[in-house]
Amino acid sequence: MGFSHGGQSTLYSSMTRFRKAYGPTGEQEFAAHITFYPACVTKYRGDDQVTARPIRVLHGTADDYNPIAPCRAYVERVSKLGKDIRLVEYPDASHVFDAPAFKEPRKVTAAPTTARCVLAEGDNGAIMNEETKQPFSYGDACVVKGPTVAYNEAASNQARVYVRTFMKEVLWAAMLNRWVITSTLGVSTKATTELAFGYPRKSRQLDLVWSLRSDLVSAQNFSIGNDD
Q1: In this predicted model, what pLDDT tens digit does every residue of 127-185 receive, in sequence order?
Q2: Domain encompassing residue 18
C-alpha cells in the first residue's frame, strides 16, 4: 500500500517486467496492490502486463496534484485485458484526502506537478515528454505549481472501510488456499487453526500503518518529495 509518490511505486510494482527485474527470485508476488492518488501520466513499456493479483486505485476527483483522468485511462486499458484492477473514485476529494493534518485546505505554492504532462518511457528507460519529444525535465512547460492538499473526512472514512473489507477478502482467500494445501499435506489442525486466526493480528497491523502514516504526514508538514 502506498500514497502519492509511494502510490505510484505501489501501482507499477504490479508490472510483470518490473517484478522480474527488481523483485525476489522465483514466483513470489505481493498478495495485492493498494495505491492512493498516484500519478498515472507516464506510459511505461509493458505497463499493461501486470500481475493476476488484485490492484486497487483510490483517488479523489478533485485532485489537482495527480489528476484522476490519466488513472481512469490506465485502469480502463489494463482491465480490458482481463486483469483484476479497479479505480475507486471519491467525489470532491483532493490530494492527501486521508490526512487529518490538512483539515484546512492548503495550496502548496512551491510544489511542482506533472498534472498537464503526457509522458512515456523511451529508449534506455528515459522518460520522454510526448509533446516536445525530448527527455522530460521539471523545467518543461507542462509542469505547473501550486496544487492543493486537503483532508476529506467522508472520503477518508470510506477509504478505510473499503481497504479493510478488501484486505479481509484477500487475506481470507489466501488463508483458505493455504488451508487446502495444509490439509492436503496433512498438517495438524492446530497449525491450520493458528493460520486461520492470523487475520486479526494483520488487521491491527493495518491500523498501525495508517496511524504511522498520519503521524508522518503531520510531522513532515507535507515535505515535497517525501509523500510516500
Answers
A1: 999 999 999 999 999 999 999 999 999 999 999 999 999 988 887 766 665 555 555 55
A2: 2-111+146-220
Report the domain count for the chain.
1
In-domain check, residue 29: yes
Note whether 63 and 108 are within 8 A (CB).
no
Please name the residue that has the C-alpha cell 478505510.
160
- Residue 16 neighbours by CB under 8 Å, 6+ apart: 46, 49, 50, 51
Instruction: Evaluate whether residue 136 is within a structural domain.
Output: no
Q: What is the CATH number of the domain that holds 86?
A: 3.40.50
Assess if residue 182 is contained within a domain: yes
In a domain, 227, yes or no: no
Instruction: Write 19-25 long-range contacts (CB < 8 A, 24+).
Output: 19/51
> pTM, whole model, 2 decimals?
0.79
Cα 110 to Cα 27, 147, 181, 217, distances in angstroms: 43, 9, 54, 17
Q: How far is CA 3 from the centre of its chain?
A: 6
**Which grid cell sits at 150?**
486537503
